[in-house]
């Protein structure tokens, strides 16, 4: 069996997925050698990633005025009884759902249902993206209809690169079915998306509001869960929550920058080193936090699997051979039903579609038991040299990160609830990226262990092979690399690196 699914569709349409010219897919020159730096000087690697986040936030300051029309339209729609729908895939889908959860915590009860955040694949895709879903616009239409989108509602599509078919499909649907012109948020300049036809059609449409938040290359090449999703969360979030309480976005961004600058780099390095050491010694980690931080912690811990080819969160419906390196446990949640209600802030919205419910249905979601029992369950189920707790908590003025040996405190005074969640996101993204660097899960700043679960990621893996070949002075055609990549995926384990396996095959031939 080949780990690359839907290959025929990719091969027949591969010209649509050549995305290497997009800045979000291009190596960041400021983080070249990041993996090697982490191995030799972890504190410097931490500082380098903090610097990239700081630069992204500085660039976001320039877009504050551009967000004013979005804020005005959100206010208008909500004032006149409409709802705000936020669509995304992967990291941006989790962004959308986190914004809905925050809205439910802060909005008056009479308006708590007026923001709907949804992800390709439905709520079950929060933990593991459903293969191929983001490539199908017809799934977007079916999903929106299920959610009850009306002509009075506003659609805001969020895609890091600007080219994801599912998100574009939600915007196209809204064009035809809403009296409000939809929004499209993305992080690549319009001119670089001009040759991506599916994107350019919407960008050029006079009936679509576009908001480009270009902040440059990602710290880890193509890892748009990092800086791209950070700035999109803030830009959209500040515009949304202004309806509840007016917010000085510039002041919040500056406070967030200061909070990042004040992080104790050496304590954070110690936490990173400790976790990587546990994994190297065949141990497991369970992250423990509260429901109000749950979606942000869940997002980072689950995104490690497709980004670095690690085992995904274990599900009780599966024959579990190997556990996930890390897992999540929500304090004071007794069972899966309570846990998911508390995390989401609403009953789960799963997709009970005949062709997909094995992966997208409620039974699948409930199989992920991230209740308060998760730590003890993992200790009883899995033999491991160490079972470690990594605890994340907060009060009005601090975030706390602690393991068996160290505690990091970060001052959050003056930060809004949204800004605090994004600060937590940035720290966790940095933390997990450098843990994976210490485990050898990427080289320089190239995701050599990316898992090709959709067409964009097949293209990404192909381009990474091409890039590494060029570093060795070897030239090769894209199509040859892609075909070799597919062949390399035959009978391959999901935790292996298809990039390195393909590279080895091609350099042997050379």
Structure description:
This protein starts with 6 loop residues before the first helix and ends with a helix. The strands form two sheets. A five-stranded parallel β-sheet has the order 2-1-3-4-5, sandwiched between helices. The protein has a five-stranded mixed β-sheet with strand order 7-6-8-9-10, with helices on both faces. The protein is 47% helix and 10% strand. The protein has 510 residues and is an alpha/beta fold. Strand 1 (84-88), helix 5 and strand 2 form a beta-alpha-beta unit. It is globular, with a radius of gyration of 21 Å. The chain is built from 20 helices and ten strands. The chain has three domains: 7-19 and 446-509, no CATH class; 64-212, Glucose-6-phosphate isomerase like protein, domain 1 (Rossmann fold); 263-438, no CATH class. The longest helix has 22 residues, at 417-438. Helix 3 crosses helix 9 (227-241), helix 9 packs antiparallel against helix 17 and helix 11 packs across helix 17. The chain has helices spanning 7-12, 34-40, 42-61, 68-79, 91-106, 137-147, 165-177, 197-203, 227-241, 249-261, 265-280, 291-308, 336-344, 357-360, 362-366, 374-381, 417-438, 455-471, 478-488, 498-509, and strands at 84-88, 115-119, 154-158, 183-186, 209-212, 284-289, 326-330, 387-394, 398-402, 407-411.
User: What is the overall pLDDT average?
Assistant: 94
SS elements, strand count? 10
Percent range for β-strand residues: 5-15%
SS content category: alpha/beta
Strand order of the largest sheet: 2-1-3-4-5
Task: Please state the CA-atom Rg, rounded to the nearest Å.
Answer: 21 Å
- Give the SSE order as H and E letters: HHHHEHEHEHEHEHHHEHEHHHHEEEHHHH
Distance, first to last CA: 27 Å
Structural shape? globular
- Helical percent range? 40-55%
Number of domains: 3
H/I helix tally = 20
Largest sheet: 5 strands, parallel
Low-confidence stretches: none
């Amino acid at each position: 069996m080949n780990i690359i699914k839907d290959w025929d569709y990719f091969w027949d349409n591969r010209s649509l997925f050549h995305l290497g010219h997009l800045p979000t897919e291009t190596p960041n020159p400021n983080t070249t050698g990041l993996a090697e730096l982490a191995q030799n000087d972890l504190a410097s690697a931490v500082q380098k990633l903090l610097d990239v986040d700081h630069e992204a936030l500085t660039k976001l300051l320039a877009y504050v005025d551009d967000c004013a029309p979005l804020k005005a339209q959100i206010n208008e729609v909500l004032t006149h009884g409409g709802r705000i729908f936020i669509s995304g895939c992967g990291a941006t889908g989790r962004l959308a759902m986190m914004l809905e959860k925050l809205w439910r915590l802060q909005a008056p009860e009479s308006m708590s249902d007026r923001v709907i955040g949804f992800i390709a694949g439905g709520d079950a895709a929060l933990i593991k993206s459903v293969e191929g879903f983001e490539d199908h616009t017809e799934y977007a239409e079916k999903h929106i209809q299920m959610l009850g989108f009306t002509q009075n509602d506003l659609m805001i599509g969020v895609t890091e690169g600007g080219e994801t078919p599912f998100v574009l499909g939600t915007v196209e649907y809204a064009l035809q079915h809403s009296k409000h012109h939809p929004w499209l948020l993305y992080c690549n300049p319009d001119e670089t998306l001009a040759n991506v036809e599916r994107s350019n059609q919407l960008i050029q449409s006079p009936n679509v509001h576009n908001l480009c938040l270009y902040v440059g290359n990602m710290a880890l090449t193509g890892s748009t869960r990092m800086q791209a999703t950070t700035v999109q969360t803030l830009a959209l979030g500040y515009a949304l929550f202004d309806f509840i309480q007016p917010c000085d976005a510039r002041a919040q961004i500056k406070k967030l920058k200061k909070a990042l600058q004040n992080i104790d780099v050496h304590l954070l390095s110690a936490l990173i080193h400790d976790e990587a050491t546990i994994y190297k010694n065949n141990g497991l980690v369970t992250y423990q936090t509260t429901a109000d931080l749950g979606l942000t912690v869940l997002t980072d811990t689950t995104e490690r699997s497709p980004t670095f080819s690690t085992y995904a969160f274990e599900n009780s419906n599966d024959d579990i051979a190997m556990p996930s390196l890390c897992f999540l446990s929500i304090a004071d949640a007794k069972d899966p039903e309570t846990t998911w209600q508390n995390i989401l802030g609403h009953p789960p919205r799963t997709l009970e579609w005949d062709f997909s419910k094995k992966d997208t249905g409620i039974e699948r979601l409930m199989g992920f038991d991230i209740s308060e029992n998760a730590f003890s369950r993992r200790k009883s189920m899995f033999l491991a040299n160490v079972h470690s707790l990594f605890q994340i908590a907060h009060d009005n003025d601090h975030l706390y990160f602690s393991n068996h040996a160290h505690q990091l405190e970060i001052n959050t005074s003056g930060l809004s609830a949204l800004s605090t969640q994004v600060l937590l996101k940035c720290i966790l993204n940095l933390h997990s990226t450098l843990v994976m660097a210490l485990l050898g899960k990427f080289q320089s700043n190239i995701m050599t262990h990316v898992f090709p679960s959709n067409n964009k990621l097949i293209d990404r893996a192909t381009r990474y092979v091409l890039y590494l070949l060029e570093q060795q002075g070897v030239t090769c055609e894209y199509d040859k690399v892609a075909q070799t990549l597919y062949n390399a995926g035959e009978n391959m384990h999901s935790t292996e690196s298809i990039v390195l396996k393909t590279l080895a095959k091609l350099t042997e031939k050379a």
